[in-house]
Amino acid sequence: MNNIDLYKLENELRQGKVRDVYFLHGNDAYLFSRAYGLITAESADIESLYLQKATEEEISAPFVSYFFGDSKCVCVYDLTADLASAKQRAFFDAISEMPEGTKVLIYGYQDTDRVKQAPQSLLKQFSPSLDVAVIDLIGGDHNTVNKEILSIIKNNDIKAEKEALERIKEYCDNDLSLIGNEILKIASYGNGRIDVESVDLLCTRSSNAWIYSLISSVEYGKTRESLSLLSDLFAQGMKPSTMISIISDSYINVFNAKCAMLSGKSSSEMLSDFGIKPSKKYEVAWNKARKMTLERMNEIIGLLYETDKQIKSINTDPQILVTECICKIISVYQNKVYK
Questions:
Q1: Sequence-ordered list of residues with C-beta below 8 angstroms from that of 69, at least 6 positions apart, any chain
Q2: What is the pTM of this model?
Q3: 279 with 141: CB under 8 angstroms?
Q4: Which of the four, 1, 77, 97, 233, has the lowest number of CB atoms within 10 Å?
Q5: Is 88 left (phi over 0), alpha (psi -120 to 50) or beta?
Q6: Among 133, 51, 53, which Cα is nearest to 92's?
Q7: What would the pLDDT profile of 29-75 be if each residue is shown by its tens digit?
Q8: pLDDT digits 0-9 by tens, 93-134
């Protein structure tokens, strides 16, 4: 059994190496889609198997209804540790005897930054005779995003300025499902070229990117710009509670980084302790923690906590509560006294 990433998978398939079982594991829907496309590209027949819904008899059917000479891929959903033991046995028995030319693609999707290891209790049940690969599809980190961007640019013969690509990543909050669409859209507008001006003109920003711009504006004490960004977010329909939650998460990341720093730990050790994959937002949090005191962080987190509590418990317009909170946080950065 081997752990490989999307790019090793791509190289293997290009060289004609096909494994019996691909266990897709990670947190990025875009990368899952890419892996699915690569694995199923040469399959004459693609069949889906939903283990939770299927009976024990139905579980074995995709692995025996096979036409000699054709390649087949069975896409398996709902293989989890809590799946009924009888269904688990039926599944693992079926694939241990599947015909030559059949391959299995298993979904193990987790929608979270903190991606645990693929469940060992399931992986241990595969027959030793099967060639099994766990495909790590972890999104958000620099290496994965940069590799995928280079792949998109190369495959579509696009010429792009480095700063323009950095802005696309920032505006799309490192979300590959957004980045890919934006690159193709902007390149189409520029006849295959992407520059900073076209990105600023055409790139659609994710909601998180708007909030990160708001946080940056607040930290620089730009009251007018902050209130303008806040107004834009309200106009986009973002819920005040969601806004406070995202801003709180940002400052909690800074707080965790500061605590790790004061404990003599490195940024990589902090990520390891929390079971977090590296990404730009944690790198930013680490850099911010160098400049901020715990006292200031506690003050800001306290304001956010109190606002969140007020949104859930009193009748005041939530937008007013969030606006007041943002103004108070700006005051913290400006060292002004407020009540």
A1: 101
A2: 0.63
A3: yes
A4: 97
A5: alpha
A6: 51
A7: 788 888 999 999 988 888 999 999 999 889 988 887 555 556 889 99
A8: 999 988 888 999 998 766 555 556 677 888 899 999 999 999
Residue 317 is predicted with a pLDDT of 92
Beta-bridge mates of residue 108: 25
- The residue assigned the tokens 């005191």 is 293
C-alpha to C-alpha distance for 212 and 250, rounded to whole angstroms = 9
Q: Which residues of the chain have pLDDT under 50?
A: 337-339
pLDDT of residue 110: 63
CA distance 62 to 94: 9
Distances (CA, A) of 145 to 37, 192, 225, 332: 18, 20, 30, 35
d(CA 232, CA 323): 12
Phi-psi region of 134 (alpha: psi -120 to 50; beta: other; left: phi over 0): beta
Residue type at position 307: T
- Rounded to 5 degrees, φ, ψ at 75 are -95, 120
Residue of 175, 178, 200 whose CA lies nearest to 190: 200
pLDDT in the model for residue 303: 95
Q: What angle do CA 217, 221, 224 make, to 5 degrees?
A: 70
DSSP 207-241: HHHHHHHHHHHHHTT-HHHHHHHHHHHHHTT--HH
DSSP E strands in 140-270: the ranges are 159-160, 193-194
Instruction: Give the C-alpha separation, 79 to 90, whole Å.
Output: 12
